[in-house]
Structure formats: C-alpha cells, structure tokens
Amino acid sequence: MKATSDLHEIGEEIEKQVHKFGQELQDFVERVVPSSSKAKDFRPEADLIVSEKSLSIVMDLPGLTKKEIAITRKQNVLTVRGEREVMLADGEQYKRNERKSGAFMRSFAIPEEADASNITASFRNGVLTIQLPMDSTNEDTTHIPVQ
C-alpha cells in the first residue's frame, strides 16, 4: 500500500506543478500580448443582473446618444454596437489622452427562459439598460410521471 500512496502523492504534486505552470504562463501571455490591437479601443463594461422576473443588462456609455447605439437580436444572441468618438479642434493636441474611444460591440447570450419577443431598452444619463423578461413557464419542459 505504501507504493500506491507514494504514487498518488507524486501524481498530486505533478498536477499542482502543471496547474501552477499553466497559471504562470497565462499571466505571462496577458502581460506580453495586448488585449486589443488598439490600446485606446472603447469597450464598455456591462453588469448582468438576474431576478426571477427578468435579466437586465446595464452598460455605461458616457458621451453617446441614443442614435449612436444599435441593439440587435439574432437567434439567441443580443448585440450592442456603437462608437464613441473624441474629436479635437484644429490646432489642438493631447497633452494626456486617457479616455478610450472607438467602435465597440458587445454580445450576450439570451437565456432559454427569456421572453426574447418582449425585450426593452432605455438610455438615460449615459446608462443603457436592457430588460429581458423571464418566462416562468417553459413550454419545452415536459414532466414525466414516475410509475
């Protein structure tokens, strides 16, 4: 039994080392390879908020207007597109440029239980809120009695 126990411990140690190496490699790649081809690309972050009645997608889109935002649904994917441009007047140049700009696209999987035909969206004070009502009755579910 001692040999089996030793082999098990060696196997666990090898697994730990391989896992640690994988994490270190991933950290290295993330430091060396930029996450986007253009460092100033605007990629708004989103909050997904779930309740029994709805799924909400909330995105901060400062500096945009309703007309600059497009929301589409294709099959079970909801996509938000837009572009934030920061323009300088003639003769102006940046001393420091920290705000991100450019075109963006975010896609979200629509859950099966969402009522995709009743999606609503509102845009107030630079915040986009998309509401997907959840259908509590899933017609595809069949209850099978146990006999």
Summarize the structure.
This protein is α+β, with helices and mostly antiparallel strands and 147 residues long. The chain has one helix and seven strands, in the order H-E-E-E-E-E-E-E. A four-stranded antiparallel β-sheet has the order 1-2-7-6, with no helix packed on it. A three-stranded antiparallel β-sheet has the order 3-4-5, with no helix packed on it.
Protein architecture, described:
By secondary structure, the protein is of the alpha+beta class. The chain folds into two domains: 1-33; 46-91 and 98-133, Immunoglobulin-like (Sandwich). Helices cover 21% and strands 31% of the residues. It contains one helix and seven strands. It has one helix at residues 2-32, and strands at residues 46-50, 54-60, 69-74, 77-84, 102-109, 120-124, 127-133. A four-stranded antiparallel beta sheet has the order 1-2-7-6, with no helix packed on it. A three-stranded antiparallel beta sheet has the order 3-4-5, with no helix packed on it. The two termini are 47 Å apart. The model is unreliable at 35-39 (pLDDT under 50).
